Amino acid sequence: MPTDTLPDDHLSSLPELVAAVRGRLLGLGGALAFLGAVALAAPWAAATVIDWVVGGLLVAAGIAQLGVATVTYTWRGFWIAAVCGTLALIGGLAMLAIPVEGVHALVTFLGIMLLVEGAVKLAAAWGLPSDMPWGWILFDGCLTTFLGAMLVAARPAEAGVLLGLFVGVNLLSSGITFLATALAMGRGARVP
């Protein structure tokens, strides 16, 4: 790192760094809280949008893998790239063509993801200093773990509404946590 980019007194820039981080946390928290509220207002629409995004990404990944396979037909991994690309393309097209079934498939995946996210948040809450909002992170971790367990145990008839509602609650909870962290930083809590 060039020395001409470092300030003369690196400690004098700490308040500016805290202010910049705080501003970004406020923006991120506000955006996540807004998206969470929108998802809660229209849960099936939120679940359908999630299905379309994942389906579109799978189609793009499938096309990219098939493109790689066509130029590497002499490579030993040609068949793996061709089969994986075909499966991703078919899966993505199926999710776009039959969004209800795509939502059902996503419910299980998202439930598992929320369980892992909840466990990470719970572990993080115990490692924070006492002047940081560890209680909010603990609450967020408990809530996220509960939502993941509910999604994994959901019946197919409930899947779409639950997916939209739980993603909305998760986004809203995470947004509130980021806002609480930014407000704590404004009150002078130390940065770990």
Number of domains: 1
How do the SSEs run, as a string of H and E? HHHHHH
| Fraction of residues in β-strands | under 5%
The description of the largest β-sheet is:
none
- Global morphology: globular
Give a short overview:
This protein has 192 residues and is mostly helical. The chain has helices at 14-41, 43-71, 78-97, 99-127, 134-152, 159-186.
What do these coordinates show?
The chain has one domain. The protein is globular, with a radius of gyration of 22 Å. 32% of the residues are buried. The longest helix has 29 residues, at 43-71. The two termini are 23 Å apart. The protein is 80% helix and 0% strand. The protein is mainly alpha-helical and 192 residues long. Helix 3 (78-97) packs across helix 4 (99-127), helix 4 (99-127) packs antiparallel against helix 5 (134-152) and helix 5 runs antiparallel to helix 6. The mean pLDDT is 84. The chain has helices at 14-41, 43-71, 78-97, 99-127, 134-152, 159-186.
